[in-house]
Structure formats: C-alpha cells, structure tokens
Amino acid sequence: MQQLDSHQYLGVRDDIAARIAAGEFKPGERLPSERQLQAGGGVARGTVREALFQLEAEGVIYRKDRSGWYVSPPPVVYDPTRWEGFMSYVEAQGRRPETETLSKVEIVCDGMLAQIFSRPVGAPMYWIRRRRLIDGRAVLIESIIVDAARAPGLIEHDLNGSLTSVLKTVYGVGVARNKVDMRPCALTRDEAEALRVKSGLPGLSLVRTCYDAQGHVVEFDREYWRHDALTVSVDIRVR
Amino acid sequence: MQQLDSHQYLGVRDDIAARIAAGEFKPGERLPSERQLQAGGGVARGTVREALFQLEAEGVIYRKDRSGWYVSPPPVVYDPTRWEGFMSYVEAQGRRPETETLSKVEIVCDGMLAQIFSRPVGAPMYWIRRRRLIDGRAVLIESIIVDAARAPGLIEHDLNGSLTSVLKTVYGVGVARNKVDMRPCALTRDEAEALRVKSGLPGLSLVRTCYDAQGHVVEFDREYWRHDALTVSVDIRVR
C-alpha cells in the first residue's frame, strides 16, 4: 500500500470542499466517483478516500445505500433555549419537516420510568416511536413515553405532527420546563437501521424531559440524530 | 460465522451495564476479557463483542491502547448558557481539570479569519493549540485564535489555565457575548492522535465565538471532545 502523506489528504479535502462551496456540486447531488476525483490530481486512491472520510466526519458529504457519496444538505439549527418544536423550527428555516409514527402502544411503567415520572411500577404508560425527516431525508428516530393517566386515549390520535400540541389542545397538559441533555454517540444497530445509515456512524443522543407547572413529568423523549443533520446553537449575552 | 440473535446482545449489554451500575466494575477499572465475559453465559463471542460496542457507543466503556476495555468515568456536565469556563465547571463537579499548551505561534490572518474577526487579511493573529484533561484523561483538543492587536505578547504568558482570565486581567479584554455551535462529528486522524483514540470514534465539535461589549470578536475557539467525556445540558423554564 502506498504511504499516505500526512498533509496531502487535507489538500484534496480542501479542493473538494471548495468545489462544493463554489456550487459545482450542490446539496443532495452525487459526487463524481473516487476514480474521477483522483484523475488528474496525481494523488493515490487511498488519499482521495481519506479526504472523503474527513468530509463525511465533518458532515459535508454522506453515503447513501452503496450508491456513492452525496453532498449533505445544510444542517438545521436547533437552539435548546427556545421553546419551538421540530415541526416549527425546521419549517422556519425554509425546510420541509415530516413525522412518521412507527409504533404507539400501551406499556407498563418499569423501575426506571417509575423514578422519572414518580409513578408506581406497573402504571400504564404510552410508548411512541417516531421517525422525523427533513426534505425527505430521515434525520432522527425517537422514543417517547407519556403517562397514560395524564392523556387517556392519546395513541388513538394522529401523532404525525407536534405531540406537544396534541397534549395541550386535547388534554390541556402544558409544558413549563424543558430539560435537554445531549451527548454525542455512535448510532448502533437499531437506530442505524431506522435511519438507514451504517452502524457506527456518529450521532447525537438527545434526552428531553418535559415538566408541567406543578413539576410533574409530562413527556420523556429519547432522540437519536444523524450527525450531519443539525447544529446545536446557543447565543448568550451578559445582561 | 454464527448468526447473531437480534436481542441477545442487548441482554448481554444489560447484564454488563448492571454489573457496572452495581459497582462490581468501577470507573477507570478494566473489564474482564471478552473470553471471561463470555464464559458461563452461553453466548457467542460475537454477541459479547456486539454488546461491548453498544456500551462503547453509549459512552459506558472505552478502549485504551490495545489493553482492553475500561469503565468510563462519569461525563462532566457542560451548560452552554452559563459563563463558567472548563477549569471552573470541571472543578465544581469534583473532578481535576488540566490544560496542556501544545503550541502557541503568531500567524497571519487568512480569508476565513478576516471574516470572523473583521480584520484585514495579513493582520497578525495568535494560534494556540491546547489539550485538556479530566482526572488525567485527555478529553478535548482545541485550536484558539486571538487577534494579536488586542493582546500583544499573549503567547509569552502561561496559557495552561483559563485564557479568558489572562485576557481579562492582563489586557482588560472582557467577554460580553458567547456564541456556541455544537455538532456531533467523527474524530479524524489529527484530533484522534492528539486524544490518543481510534480514528473514526464519535466526538463533539464545539465552536465558540467570544465577543466584547462592542461586538468585536475577542476569541475564536474550535474544540473536539471525545464523545464519552461530556453531557451538554440545558434546563429552561417558562418565565
């Protein structure tokens, strides 16, 4: 195998990134093959691959179903200090949000959920699994738990929109506090399959606990995002 | 190769996670070998490996220098809505923060930095590279740019602490606004080497732009964190 020059792949990376930035390859478009990218550049195939992996790590390009490399659409910006939900902030950024309910079932409260909701083990809970898309691309998979006592019959409703709206308008349950914990993670088999990405791809795990004005947990949500789909952004000023 | 049962690895994962939670294996301790973990459980070696990869993805365990699997120390909590720096919030959580300056040099402002700092191309800038550790484990690598005109001679100072403090106390330069953009990423060669992790491991890329009260950029910082070292946490309430 040819020795990779430690700086050469960064040059190839910069070259491809500049062609994307200049609009030669547009978001959603397929890149030329590795062989074509290599041609004329006088670099090894391995160097081109390393540059492509670097761009994938940065979220600039992504792989799709073995059919090659594509230019990533721009990430949406998520500000956890704001109250807007996915359907609102994605649309506000000129993108098309969609929600697909994968399953909605009644379960019984286990030990972990009993602690989170301060409810007895065995109490009925709803478990909702959804996939969310931006401009037709799956970006997150989520697993939501809601106390069935607070929202009886919730899973009979259409949940392909804002769950917070359904809880508010149908059940009068409002959210007064939002605790969001985010951690980078690797997407393992189950999430990766649901997002149609390779297992091991980096992702963001986001856990949201929503409380009502009395401090009771209304909703407990675990989300797994593909890494190139969002930027978490917080802007604070001295008051 | 033996067929992996789709649920069996999650059972093994839960079993190891429970043993860690119960304190049988403590933070920083080495796990038994894969062979030992397999023994008696009646599961395939591949199932044990898949369970370990799952726990690594979740940040519960990590690999060290080919010497096996170790229990991850608990992540530190970082709240981007607060003003505290790394040295303060890590210490406040009962952990030991350290900063190592890897390099500090004068460079000239390029096109990208000219835009960020609103300074002419060619203006002198300082470029500081640091590694930060928690309890002796490298958790982030960062690259900081400071306008040399604002802090002449900055790189003559000891920068193994809080840079914000040096800017404030020595140069009277204070920060009035902090913009933080976070994205999950894969750690590629250069960052991975500096953090002594395998290339491709998930990480968090954090870009911080600090402004003074007049709206001038004081500091531009790019950080790469290993994924199991931090939880980003935001807690907001209706006012």
Automatic annotation (TrEMBL), chains A, B:
The keyword Ubl conjugation does not apply. The keyword Transcription regulation applies. GO terms for molecular function: DNA binding; DNA-binding transcription factor activity. It comes from the Bacteria. CDD domains: WHTH_GntR. One of its GO terms (biological process) is negative regulation of DNA-templated transcription. InterPro entries: Bact_HTH_transcr_reg (IPR050679), Chorismate_lyase_/UTRA_dom_sf (IPR028978), Tscrpt_reg_HTH_GntR (IPR000524), UTRA (IPR011663), WH-like_DNA-bd_sf (IPR036388), WH_DNA-bd_sf (IPR036390). Gene3D superfamilies: Chorismate lyase-like, Winged helix-like DNA-binding domain superfamily/Winged helix DNA-binding domain. Keywords: DNA-binding, Transcription, Transcription regulation. Residues 6-74 form the HTH gntR-type domain. PROSITE patterns: HTH_GNTR. Pfam families: GntR (PF00392), UTRA (PF07702). This is Transcriptional regulator, GntR family. It comes from Caulobacter vibrioides OR37.
